[in-house]
Design brief:
Immunoglobulin-like; 43% strand; six-stranded mixed beta sheet; five-stranded antiparallel beta sheet; Neuraminidase; mainly beta; 627 residues
């Protein structure tokens, strides 16, 4: 078979080339509303979108209606400004369907278009249960991001998918003030799911920016009022993950400020949840900025706590969680429960937020539901829920003022992922996205994201239940046969989300990949054997090495410089980690021996011969690469 080598075009470059091609095609003839130019899936990754373009004789306003399968399913929008040059994004098409799109101009002209879409593959999941009304849900869609093999997709009131994206996008979904989506990238930098950063992407599918972070991205991000972005990350060389946050400049991608949780919290094994280990001691899965107190609230799954830190100084203000087992000098940060109502601490929670009145809301996964191993609660007897706490920071007391989910028991239990959303007082979303059962109907105690083999063989079954409640009445409930990290209700159309032509930007930095200072002694052994399944991909800003090795094998990737370029050596980890919090399994290879190791191009210039050392033998790959 030999070594496979390919150059992989970055999505920004692919999309720019596609854009140049369809603009050139458009320019070949004059298009009016009578013969508009229609491009389905113009940016390659959003199959249920299209672009309609034409010229008017004078400026006109437009109204666009994507007809539903019934009248309640119509998706309609009006661009905010009039124009001679019409560039109309079309969202809300159905898959494998002859869609009807009506465009009406303020001049009185109109046209009805038919846009035929392709069938979607089985990664676009169909709901197994949907209960709401079109009067309640209106023209909203529920967008979900997957942790098991599935697409990021958006579903209407009837459970029909009206948008999906074919990139392997994961973790949080947020709509920025400019109408774009902020989501994690599809470029893995470290196992099991840490990616290069976040994409800023229009609903049309165009990636306008990639914000790259040296430590990689995971779980969550937050747009500040001035546009800068808080991004959860880590410092990979020190051997721990998911324990830091950075503030990134929206215009340049440069890091402006950092918060390291090791500065304010004791690490492993202090405060450990049932999923904690020394590598992933905190597991920061959410960040929330509160303007009133100028503070940041973080969720630490592996210490069963939510913490609040001063934005400017980083000082620790308070901790919400079960204080059992925490050292005496930390007890002052914890709250004492008060009140006559029900009260349960949250365990391995997600999606912390500060409500307008200062209350604290989160999704309480309830994983193990105890700090003491002997008291762990098994999944079949457990529950997950959305919960709101009222805190008093003067006397350090806490009261539980609302919850939804406990009454549903194990049916609603998710040992990982999930989120809540606040709409107004009494009106909330509660998304239990990590439900899993075995073939006997037993609920699973551990995250199912990494159980690809069991899912394929039909011995593990996945479910996601998304609920909206108003004044404790369920007005919306959707079940999907996969696990989804978060759910977000939004409009497909946002008047700020205009299609802007031009090449997207790669901002920030992947950093410099840590080198091993000496080359491991090894004998020359010819070409690397096929059994290692070695593959290399050259991307715009890095080299990615993939191969298959038994766990514990000593592996080193060598870049042997030519024409005076210095040799570079990189240690490739092959030690098996348990990854007790496998939040996203979509980046995992089916082969348990699979290794993926990226080398950032930053700081490297010249031409290099690529070799691989395996134990005491050094193999040629036949690959030569220029940075």
């Amino acid at each position: 078979m030999g070594v496979l080598f390919k150059e992989v075009e970055h999505i920004i470059d692919r999309q720019y080339r596609a854009e140049q091609e369809f603009l050139a095609e458009y320019a070949k003839e004059k298009h009016t509303i009578a013969n508009p130019y229609v491009k389905l899936n113009p940016y390659l990754i959003a199959p249920l979108t299209a672009l309609v373009m034409f010229e008017n004789e004078k400026p006109a306003f437009a109204k666009v209606t994507v007809k539903g399968k019934e009248a309640a399913g119509d998706m309609m929008y009006r661009p905010a400004s009039d124009s001679i040059h019409m560039v109309l994004p079309i969202y809300g098409l159905y898959a494998d369907y002859e869609n009807t799109v009506v465009i009406e101009l303020s001049t009185g002209e109109s046209i009805t278009l038919t846009i035929k879409t392709e069938p979607a593959d089985d990664k676009l999941k169909a709901p197994t249960y949907m209960k709401t009304t079109s009067e309640y849900f209106q023209d909203f869609v529920m967008m979900v991001s997957p942790t098991s093999p599935a697409y990021t997709a958006a579903y209407d009131y009837a459970g029909d998918a009206r948008w999906y994206n074919t990139l392997n996008l994961a973790f949080d979904i947020k709509r920025a003030r400019n109408g774009h989506l902020l989501m994690g990238t599809d470029r893995l930098v470290a196992p099991p799911y840490h990616t290069s950063g976040i994409y800023e992407m229009g609903m049309i599918g165009k990636v306008y920016k990639e914000f790259r972070i040296p430590g990689g991205y995971h779980h969550d991000e937050w747009e500040m009022e001035n546009g800068d972005i808080l991004i959860l990350t880590q410092y990979l060389p020190r051997g721990t993950v998911e324990d830091a946050c950075v503030l990134v400049d929206r215009k340049t991608g440069q890091i402006l400020k950092e918060w390291d949780h090791q500065d304010v919290l004791p690490v492993y094994p202090v405060g450990g949840s049932g999923s904690q280990d020394g590598h992933d001691w905190f597991h920061n899965n959410a960040v929330w900025y509160d303007k009133k107190t100028n503070s940041l609230t973080f969720s630490g799954r592996h210490q069963d706590i939510m913490i609040n830190r001063d934005f400017e100084t980083g000082k620790l203000n308070w901790i919400i969680g079960d204080p059992t087992g925490w050292p005496e000098d930390m007890q002052k940060y914890f709250f004492k429960p008060v009140g006559d109502g029900d009260f349960d601490w949250q365990y391995e929670q997600h999606a912390c937020m500060i409500l307008p009145n200062g209350d604290v809301m989160c999704f309480d996964n309830g994983h193990w539901r105890s700090k003491v191993k002997e008291n762990y609660v098994p999944a079949n007897d457990n529950f997950s829920r959305g919960v709101i706490y009222r805190i008093n920071t003067e006397d350090m007391t806490i009261e539980q003022v609302w919850q939804y989910g406990k009454e549903r028991g194990a049916e609603f239990f998710s040992p990982y992922i999930c989120n809540c959303e606040y709409y107004e007082n009494g009106h909330y979303l509660v998304h239990s996205g990590g439900i899993s059962t075995d073939d006997k109907g037993n609920h699973l105690d551990v995250p199912a994201a990494g159980m690809t083999k069991e899912i394929d063989e039909g011995t593990v079954f996945l479910n996601s239940i998304t609920v909206e409640v108003k004044d404790d009445v369920v007005l919306y409930e959707m079940h999907l046969p996969a696990n989804y990290y978060r759910a977000e209700k939004l409009h497909l159309y946002d008047e700020a989300d205009e299609v802007v032509f031009g090449k997207g930007e790669r901002l920030g930095s992947l950093g410099v990949t840590e080198e091993f200072l000496t080359e491991a002694p090894a004998e020359e052994a010819g070409m690397i054997p096929d059994e290692y399944k070695a593959k290399f991909a050259k991307e715009a800003d890095r080299l990615v090495f993939k191969a298959s090795f038994e766990k514990g094998t000593l592996v080193m990737l060598n870049l042997e410089g030519e024409n005076g370029a210095p040799d570079r050596h990189y240690f490739v980890p092959t030690t098996k980690r348990p990854f007790l919090a496998m939040c996203v399994g979509t980046f995992l290879e089916h082969d348990a021996r699979a290794v993926e190791f990226p080398v950032s191009a930053e700081g490297i210039e010249g031409t290099y011969k690529v070799t691989v050392t395996v134990d005491d033998k050094k193999y040629d790959t036949g690959v030569e690469i220029t940075f």
